[in-house]
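Q: Give me a protein?
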Amino acid sequence: MEVVLCVTGSVAAVEAVKLARELKRQGINVKCFMTDGATEIIHPNAMEFATGQEVVLKLTGKIEHVKYAQTDLILVAPATANVISKLAYRIADNPVSTLLVTAMGYETPIIFVPSMHHSMYRSVSENLDKLKQEGITFIKPKIDENKAKFPDIDVITLYALRYLSGHDLKGKKVLISAGATFEKIDEVRGITNLSSGKTGLELAKEAFIRGAEVTLICGQLDIDIPHILKVINVESVKDMQKVVNEQVANHDVFISAAAISDFIPVNMERLGKIPSSEDLTLKLEKAPKIINEVKKKNSSIFLVGFKAEYDMSDEELINSARKKMKESGANLIVANDVSTEGGGFGSDSNKVFLIDEDVTSIPLTSKKEIASMILDKISGYKKLIQN
């Protein structure tokens, strides 16, 4: 995979080194072009260090604008009003603008990351619209302090990976639940669990990269969610149940990765704060099993469930997962023992079993890699999720 990173004369050029390093960490070969304005903000040596390749500062007899125009992706980050407007009218007067005009002739994918004063961003909106109609992708900047600011590097990287992936889930609608539910005891206290939502987020990012339209239903989370993902926030089991039942009919895949409470307080309708001087006895009842309702709403949906147990043998864990699979009609169950050292709630890794017709044992592995393996399984069942 190769990306040509074009750096132009916005002060956000200072972020280009971090962006290049992150792209390289994702296994992407990065070649950099810089405008004269960009070199006044960041030295070309910094970009050469970040990419491991010589930076193109001027065009020579090597016809760099042609050589690199047929790459996998061109990423203009940051993109100034100047470079956007030049491409809109096919002006080629520096290495970056000449590369872009040439790439348009080859229909090479191009992503712009605008970064400028907000008034400038508004003033070039017509040129943005023109380029969008011609197939150019724009990543929305963060509007803050009257500036159109450079978005998070993770967001840009996700977009780049989406363009570079095999798109095995392109056109599919994927619904994912993540995090913990929270059941009120009073207005300041409640029952929850230790789920961080990390697995659900990694699944959402991986599905996005593979071309899916992703909706993330978020309970209590300890992590930040990239703004490019569609998010529906919920609190309680009943909130989660309502949203899932509303959404599953319109999706091809549902991954139930949230840690949903098994028990909820009975008759806890008291407002305010229960005095700490009082003794308190809680009566709990079983919460509805949301996953068991999914296939009744959409019999053709590909359903992935999670089964977390504590201090079980592998055989007991697999049997428990098989039971859940039978009850829910799930196509795939991800089972883990949260007592596993280095894995489980809150960690960046886990040890799991993927259970469908077979059992796949995955040793302690990053949640990012596990998410990829789960999506591989889903992609392998493509015939089940065809529209």
